[in-house]
Write a sequence for this structure.
């Protein structure tokens, strides 16, 4: 599954970006460039689905694909799929599980959700048999604190467990059998600790990466299930959306946004923040991606914007240099980038 | 039940003390300074944990084992004792500040020795009433101990700063010479000695001389065909631990085998530890990172696939078997050239002559333009690849010889060529010493006499008779062994059944355990 994801992602890059861009997308690098790439190459759903992925592991996987003859790579680090690679990708019935990822909208959502749910299950299972001596599987203080206050809001943990049991059973029957098994194996309860990624990989004959993605996908699907069926008591585990949008903008861009909202011009912000023009422009582009209805009229006329959008559609290439060539020198790079950001919505 | 036992039962759920614990605690509570040697796995930590719950002032525990202190704090919290805290380099600056600012909320404070060099920490500690000061792993004070820590030499000063509290010096592995060294070091303190033998009479010893790695593998496969008891197999190399875990996992589908080493993520390590505690794992293939603070009672078998670098480590690792005092076995597997790995390990623990030469060359160069430099910067300047242990060795040497400023920068005007020669001499001395320790271990592995006598005789005057079986030299073979252990519950097959057991443990047939 991980290998497919890589092949799929590299194909999406159309030979226009190096493999590193794909790494940044799936590991969720918070930079304007990466967010832009995710939109450009229609991989927003994969953004930040594997934050723990190390660069060396990614590079290792890429070089394995090269060794297997699925890929070739040029000096600039740009990968092209071989015929074999193309065939593998084609034969691969993109399973539901890949579609489960909703990436950019829920970058961190699934992780926080799964951490909260897993620790709550472990805690409640133990308390239900009057055992308060157990090792919490999650040592993140924020998560522990959340579970603690959630516990205090609960009247009857046994009925909570029974309810959750029924919902999870129903949900798990909608997904693949192996996926369901991995999901359950990972959970911890009373005197029963969940399996590690490595253990699951060994047991199911998968790579660690596959196990990670399968679990992540399951939690994305579970969130979807909870939202579709409006299961209110479990919906509480899903972190607030608003918080997420904020998270998606880099700190520095948020600061620029505050100043813009207070009515400062770009030139004034350059002075106040002692930053280069290009940096502030980067921030505005980033904001344009994150905030669909951001007002761009200070930077580009609506008519001009529409003209560039039209050109982009025509040439079907999202590389800045290509678009610039097409629309000529009438527009700055900044304006074109704003248009591309707009086009992503 | 007397008062102390009541407290023990209340806080730890044990009805009685293990040998030594009660005597030590009574002396401490009477304000006597205590020097104690207790074997690994005998519950050393109870000797200060229990008093910390009973006495008025604070208890400070100095230990160089960071993971041990983290583990102990966790264990105590698990038992419901929340007033324990660990201060060490694992804390972020913010965390440390916040702990130090509410230090009074804690009863039991674990510290790494270098934290006691920190003025701010000392200032904060001085505001508290310290009733007991515990020096864990006290053998680290001795230059001839196997784990000499120069930081420990400064404990005298810290103790004075803290208003001379009651002292408890504890160790599990100290030869009589090392014991003397420790007591001499704290010449101002009059210790009451509690020396308990460290030999473990419930552990039978086997050394198996084989010809090749493949024979070790075959030996293990043969072994686990007959025995499936809770087992730790120790490795020096992470790769080998993974390889053998995979091999055994494939051979024995009915056994649960996992590996454990320092490269795993903390959260995953934690799961594996707990699975082992709950008998969800039968065999664990681990590096020496595993075991510290693991309080599993029924480990029946400790195997050394690779041997460590000294007898003391071996004794400690073997001692994780049979804490419940039931019959357990230690097996060391050796093959020709097995000394290569530990020799290399010793080498990487000490800076090489080239390293020192090159470092001093750059220090003498920097001397012309600067007055001080931090050690890290000096190393960056130096471009010589150096690992953490080696860096620490040099840093300790500099600190010990008063070449550092208060905030840990090298005072460059003090750097003269003589220091370099002395440092190189020190390295050579340590290296000889460590290689000597390794030889000692090999002598034990190849000796023809009783293994129990040979293993423990340098630590104590008499070695007890074995409670069950002695060793291979005295005629013990595995065929004579009938271990007792709790069987692992059958594994639930379907995810439906598993989910039910996890979420609904209060319904009958809840857990998958017996």
């Amino acid at each position: 599954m991980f290998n497919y994801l890589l092949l799929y992602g590299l194909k999406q890059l159309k030979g226009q970006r190096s493999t590193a861009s794909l790494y940044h997308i799936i590991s969720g690098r918070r930079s304007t460039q990466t967010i832009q790439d995710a939109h450009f190459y229609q991989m927003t759903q994969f953004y930040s689905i594997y934050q723990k992925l190390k660069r060396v592991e990614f590079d290792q996987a890429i070089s394995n694909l090269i060794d297997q003859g699925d890929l070739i790579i040029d000096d600039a680090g740009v990968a092209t799929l071989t015929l074999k690679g193309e065939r593998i990708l084609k034969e691969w019935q993109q399973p539901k599980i890949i579609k489960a990822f909703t990436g950019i909208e829920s970058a961190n959502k699934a992780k926080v959700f799964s951490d909260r749910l897993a620790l709550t299950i472990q805690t409640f299972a133990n308390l239900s048999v009057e055992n308060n001596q157990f090792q919490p599987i999650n040592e993140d203080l924020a998560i522990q604190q959340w579970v603690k206050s959630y516990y205090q809001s609960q009247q009857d943990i046994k009925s909570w467990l029974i309810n959750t049991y029924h919902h999870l059973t129903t949900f798990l029957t909608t997904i693949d059998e192996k996926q369901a098994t991995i999901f359950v194996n990972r959970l911890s309860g009373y005197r029963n600790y969940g399996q590690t990624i490595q253990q699951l990989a060994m047991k199911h004959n998968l790579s660690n990466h596959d196990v990670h993605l399968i679990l992540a996908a399951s939690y994305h699907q579970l969130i979807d299930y909870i939202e579709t069926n409006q299961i209110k008591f479990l919906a509480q585990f899903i972190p607030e959306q608003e918080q997420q949008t904020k998270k998606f903008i880099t700190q520095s861009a948020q600061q620029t946004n505050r100043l813009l909202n207070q009515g400062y011009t770009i030139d004034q912000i350059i002075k106040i923040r002692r930053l280069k023009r290009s940096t502030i422009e980067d921030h505005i582009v980033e904001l344009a991606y994150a905030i669909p209805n951001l007002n761009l009229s200070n930077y580009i006329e609506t008519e001009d914007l529409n003209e560039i959008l039209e050109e982009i559609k025509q040439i079907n290439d999202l590389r800045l240099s290509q678009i610039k060539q097409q629309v000529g020198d009438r527009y700055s790079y900044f304006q074109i980038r704003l248009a591309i950001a707009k086009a992503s919505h | 039940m007397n008062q102390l036992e009541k407290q023990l039962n209340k806080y730890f759920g044990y009805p009685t003390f293990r040998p030594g614990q009660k005597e030590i605690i009574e002396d401490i509570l009477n304000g006597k300074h205590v020097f104690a040697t207790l074997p690994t796995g005998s519950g050393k930590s109870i000797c200060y944990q229990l008093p910390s719950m009973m006495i008025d002032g604070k208890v400070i525990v100095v230990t160089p084992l960071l993971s041990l202190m983290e583990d102990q704090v966790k264990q105590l919290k698990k038992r419901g004792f929340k007033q324990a805290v660990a201060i060490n380099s694992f804390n972020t600056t913010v965390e440390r500040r916040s702990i130090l600012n509410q230090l009074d909320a804690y009863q039991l404070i674990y510290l790494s020795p270098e934290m006691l060099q920190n003025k701010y920490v000392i200032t904060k500690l001085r505001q508290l009433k310290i009733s007991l000061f515990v020096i864990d792993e006290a053998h680290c004070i001795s230059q001839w101990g196997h784990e000499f820590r120069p930081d420990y030499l400064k404990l005298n000063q810290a103790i004075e700063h803290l208003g001379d509290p009651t002292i408890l010096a504890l160790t599990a592995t100290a030869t009589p010479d090392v014991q003397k060294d420790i007591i001499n070091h704290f010449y101002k303190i009059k210790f009451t000695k509690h020396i308990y033998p460290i030999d473990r009479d419930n552990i039978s010893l086997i050394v198996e001389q084989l010809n090749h790695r493949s024979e070790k593998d075959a030996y293990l496969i043969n072994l686990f065909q007959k025995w499936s008891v809770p087992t730790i197999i120790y490795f020096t190399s992470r790769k080998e631990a993974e390889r053998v875990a995979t091999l055994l996992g494939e051979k024995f589908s009915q056994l649960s085998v996992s590996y454990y080493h320092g490269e795993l993520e903390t959260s995953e390590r934690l799961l594996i530890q707990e699975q082992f505690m709950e008998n969800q794992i039968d065999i664990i293939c681990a590096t020496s990172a595993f075991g510290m603070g693991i309080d599993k009672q029924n480990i029946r078998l400790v195997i050394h696939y690779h041997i460590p670098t000294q007898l003391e480590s071996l004794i400690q690792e073997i001692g994780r078997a049979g804490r419940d005092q039931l019959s357990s076995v230690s097996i060391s597997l050796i093959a020709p050239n097995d000394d290569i790995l530990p020799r290399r390990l010793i080498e990487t623990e000490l800076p090489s002559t080239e390293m020192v030469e090159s470092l001093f060359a750059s220090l003498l160069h920097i001397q012309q333009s600067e007055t001080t430099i931090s050690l890290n910067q000096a190393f960056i300047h130096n471009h010589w690849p150096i690992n953490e242990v080696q860096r620490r060795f040099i840093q300790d040497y500099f600190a010990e010889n008063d070449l550092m400023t208060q905030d840990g920068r090298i005072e460059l005007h003090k750097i003269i060529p003589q220091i370099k020669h002395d440092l190189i001499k020190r390295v050579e001395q340590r290296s000889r010493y460590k290689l000597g320790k390794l030889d000692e271990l090999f002598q034990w592995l190849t000796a023809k006499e009783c293994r129990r006598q040979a293993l423990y005789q340098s630590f104590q005057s008499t070695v007890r008779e074995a409670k069950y079986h002695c060793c291979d030299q005295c005629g013990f073979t595995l065929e004579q062994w009938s271990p007792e252990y709790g069987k692992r519950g059958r594994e639930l097959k379907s995810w439906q059944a598993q989910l039910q057991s996890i979420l609904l443990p209060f319904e009958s047939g809840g857990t998958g355990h017996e």
